[in-house]
Recover the amino acids of this structure.
C-alpha cells in the first residue's frame, strides 16, 4: 500500500497541516485538532524520507531539528498516552488553559475576549527548544513554526516543486 486512497504525496500532508492549523487558530483549545496536527506532522517526515534505506537520514534530520524533536515527543505522547522513549526530552508537559465560558456565550460583546479569554493549549518545553522558543508556548504558536519548517523541508526535498 502507498499513501491513503488518492493521497500519496507529502504535499497532501502539508495541505492537511494547513487545514488543522486554521482550525486550531480558530479554536485554540481544540485538543482533537492539535492531536491531528502533531501526528500528521510526525508522519510527514516518514513521507519525505520513506523506507528503511532512509532510517539514518530521518534520525539525522530529527537530531538537527529541534522543532521535529518537539513534534515527535508530542505525537508519541498523543498516540501512546505515556512517552517512554528515552530520546523524548523536549516537552515537560501539555495543558489546556482558560476557556471557562463558551466563545458563543459572549459573541459580539465588545470586551468579552479580554474579560473571558478563550484560553488554549499550552506546551511546556525543555532543552534546546525551551532556549529557542521559550519555556512555555501555545500549541498554535508552535504549530505555526512547525508548519513553516515542514514547508521548507518539503521544498528542500523537492526543489522543482517550490
Amino acid at each position: 500500500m502507498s499513501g491513503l486512497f488518492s493521497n500519496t504525496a507529502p504535499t497532501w500532508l502539508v495541505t492537511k497541516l494547513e487545514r488543522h492549523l486554521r482550525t486550531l487558530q480558530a479554536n485554540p483549545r481544540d485538543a482533537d485538532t492539535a492531536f491531528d496536527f502533531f501526528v500528521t506532522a510526525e508522519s510527514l517526515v516518514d513521507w519525505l524520507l520513506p523506507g528503511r534505506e532512509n532510517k539514518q537520514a530521518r534520525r539525522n534530520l530529527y537530531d538537527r531539528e529541534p522543532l521535529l524533536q518537539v513534534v515527535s515527543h508530542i505525537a508519541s505522547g498523543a498516540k501512546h498516552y505515556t512517552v517512554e522513549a528515552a530520546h523524548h526530552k523536549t516537552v515537560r508537559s501539555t495543558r489546556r488553559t482558560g476557556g471557562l465560558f463558551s466563545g458563543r456565550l459572549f459573541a459580539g460583546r465588545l470586551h468579552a475576549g479580554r474579560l473571558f479569554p478563550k484560553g488554549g493549549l499550552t506546551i511546556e518545553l525543555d532543552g534546546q527548544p525551551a532556549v529557542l522558543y521559550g519555556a512555555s508556548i501555545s500549541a498554535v504558536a508552535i504549530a505555526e513554526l512547525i508548519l513553516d519548517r515542514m514547508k521548507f523541508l518539503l521544498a528542500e526535498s523537492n526543489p522543482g516543486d517550490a
In short: Residues 10-161 form one domain. The helical segments are 10-26, 31-48, 55-64, 66-80, 112-115, 127-133, 139-157.
